[in-house]
Design brief:
The chain has 13 helices and 15 strands. It is α/β, with parallel strands linked by helices. It has two domains: 143 residues, Aspartate Aminotransferase, domain 1, CATH 3.90.1150; 263 residues, 3-Layer(aba) Sandwich (Aspartate Aminotransferase, domain 2), CATH 3.40.640.10. The strands form three sheets. Strands 4-10-9-8-7-5-6 form a seven-stranded mixed beta sheet, sandwiched between helices. Strands 1-2-3-13 form a four-stranded mixed beta sheet. Strands 11-12-15-14 form a four-stranded antiparallel beta sheet, covered by helices on one side. α11 packs parallel to α13.
C-alpha cells in the first residue's frame, strides 16, 4: 500500500498524543524524545494552540492568500518580522515546509543579486525537493537515484570540530576552516557570481554539530565582502530549542534571510522566510506564494505557539533541560569512553556520536541503530542523525516536566546497555 521510500522508524501506529507522550493503538504510552523531528517545542496538542485552531476552524479554513488575503497571515508575518534578528526594515513570506522555504530564499537571493551560484556545506540537510536536495549533503539516504540536481551549487566543509576538515586540534586552530570560504571563491566559483551562502547554525540531520560562533561571524563577513546573501536555515534550531529564540543569536550575527519551519506552528505545516525588505521586494509580483502557503489554520496555530513560547519562557526552559540532558550524556561518555565519542549541541538540541573506538573515531551506526531500537522497547522515541547514521539525537518537547525527562533518560541508559550487548556481544 505504501512505497518502500517512505521510512517509518517506530513500527507502531500512533493513536493519540498529549504533552510529551504518544499513545499507540495498542495502548502503550511512549515518551516522545523526537518531537516530530523537532516540530513540537510546545509538545503534543498544547491546549492554547488547540483552542486557537478550533476558533480558526469556525472562521476560515482556506482561500489561498493570493486570491483573497486574511488577517492571520498578515499578523503572523508582522510577528515574525518583530522577532527576527536585525534592525533594518524586514518582511516575511509564508510557505508550507522547510524545503519550500529554503528554495524560495534562494530564489529571493538570486532575484535580488542577479547572480546564480550558491555556496552550501558538507553535512547539510535543507529538504527533499530538488534544489533543496542539491544543497543537502547526505547522498545514501536522501539523494540516491534522484539526480541530476540543479547546477551552480558549490559545497565546502562545515566546521565539524570533532572531525576537523583540516585535521587540526580545534582548541587552538583559530577556526582555520574559515579560510576555506575564501578558497571557495578562488577555485570553485567567482565571487561576482555568488548569490548566497546557505548555512545551518547547528547541523540538524548532519549530526547536531554547532558551528563555532567565530565561524558564523566569518560567514557574515564573507557575505558582506562578496555581496552574497547570508541565508540561515533555522528549520530545526528555531523557536527556543537551542536556548535562544534563534540559534544564530548566540553568535551575534544578523542574517539577510532567515528560514523557519517545524516548531513555528506546533506540528501544523507552515514555514517562513523572514529578512531584509529590499531583498524580498526584489521579486516580481506573483513570484512568491503558493496555494496552501500560510494557511489560516496553520497561521492561527503559529500565533498561539509564539504566545506559548513567550509566556512559558521556552528558550530559558531549553537551557534548563539542556543542562540536565548534557550532564547525563557526559556521564554515559565517562562510563563508555571508547564508544561515546562526542557529546555536543546547544540548549536542549543535544546528541552523542557513537564510534567503534575513541582513537580511530570510526563511526558505529549499528550501535546507534541498536540503541534507538532498545529505547523504543523501553518506551522512548529517539532518532539517529549524522551522515553515517552514528549519532543519537534528543529533541524533547520543551514543556516536558523534569521528573518525566529524568525517567526517559533512565530508560535510555538501560537501553544503551542493551544496545552494547546486541551490537558487540561479549564486549
Amino acid at each position: 500500500m505504501l512505497p518502500r521510500g517512505v521510512a517509518v522508524h517506530a513500527r507502531r501506529a500512533a493513536a493519540r498524543a498529549e504533552g510529551p507522550f504518544v499513545v499507540d493503538e495498542e495502548g502503550n504510552r511512549l515518551l516522545d524524545f523526537a518531537s516530530g523531528i523537532g516540530a513540537l517545542a510546545t509538545g503534543h496538542r498544547h491546549p492554547q494552540v488547540i483552542a486557537a485552531v478550533r476558533e480558526q476552524l469556525d472562521r476560515l479554513v482556506h482561500t489561498c492568500f493570493s486570491v483573497i488575503a486574511y488577517r492571520p497571515y498578515v499578523e503572523l508575518a508582522a510577528r515574525l518580522v518583530e522577532l527576527a534578528p536585525g534592525d533594518d526594515p524586514r518582511k516575511a513570506v509564508l510557505f508550507n515546509s522547510g524545503a519550500e522555504a529554503v528554495e524560495n530564499a534562494v530564489k529571493v537571493a538570486r532575484a535580488a543579486t542577479g547572480r546564480g551560484a550558491v555556496l552550501c556545506f558538507e553535512g547539510a540537510f535543507h529538504g527533499r525537493t530538488l534544489l533543496a536536495l542539491g544543497l543537502t549533503s547526505r547522498t545514501d539516504t536522501y539523494k540516491r537515484g534522484f539526480g541530476p540536481f540543479p547546477g551552480d551549487l558549490y559545497r565546502v566543509p562545515y566546521p565539524y570540530c570533532y572531525r576537523c576538515p583540516l585535521g587540526k586540534d580545534p582548541t587552538g586552530c583559530g577556526i582555520a576552516c574559515t579560510a576555506l570560504l575564501d578558497r571557495a571563491v578562488e577555485v570553485l566559483v567567482d565571487a561576482e557570481d555568488l548569490a548566497a551562502v546557505v548555512i545551518e547554525p547547528v547541523l540538524g540531520e548532519g549530526g547536531f554539530v554547532p558551528a563555532p560562533p567565530e565561524f558564523l561571524r566569518a560567514v557574515r563577513t564573507f557575505c558582506d565582502r562578496t555581496g552574497a546573501v547570508m541565508i540561515v536555515d533555522e528549520v530545526q534550531t528555531g523557536f527556543g530549542r537551542t536556548g535562544t529564540l534563534f540559534a544564530i543569536e548566540q553568535a551575534g550575527v544578523v542574517p539577510d534571510l532567515l528560514v523557519l519551519a517545524k516548531s513555528l506552528a506546533s506540528g501544523f505545516p507552515l514555514s517562513a522566510v523572514v529578512g531584509r525588505a529590499d531583498l524580498l521586494d526584489a521579486v516580481q509580483v506573483g513570484g512568491l506564494g503558493g496555494t496552501y502557503g500560510g494557511n489560516p489554520v496553520a497561521c492561527a496555530a503559529a500565533l498561539a505557539t509564539l504566545d506559548v513560547i513567550e509566556q512559558e519562557g521556552l528558550p530559558a526552559r531549553a537551557r534548563e533541560l539542556g543542562t540536565v540532558i548534557r550532564k547525563r550524556l557526559e556521564a554515559w561518555r565517562t562510563r563508555y569512553p571508547e564508544h561515546l565519542g562526542d557529546v555536543r549541541g546547544l540548549g536542549a538540541m543535544l546528541a552523542v556520536e557513537l564510534v567503534r573506538d575513541a582513537r580511530s573515531r570510526e563511526p558505529w551506526p549499528d550501535l546507534a541503530k541498536a540503541w534507538t531500537a532498545a529505547c523504543l522497547e523501553e518506551g522512548v522515541l529517539v532518532l539517529t542523525a549524522g551522515t553515517a547514521g552514528n549519532v543519537v539525537r534528543l529533541l524533547v518537547p520543551l514543556v516536558i516536566p523534569l521528573p518525566v525527562l529524568e525517567d526517559g533518560l533512565d530508560r535510555m541508559e538501560r537501553a544503551l546497555e542493551t544496545a552494547f550487548a546486541r551490537a558487540a556481544p561479549g564486549r
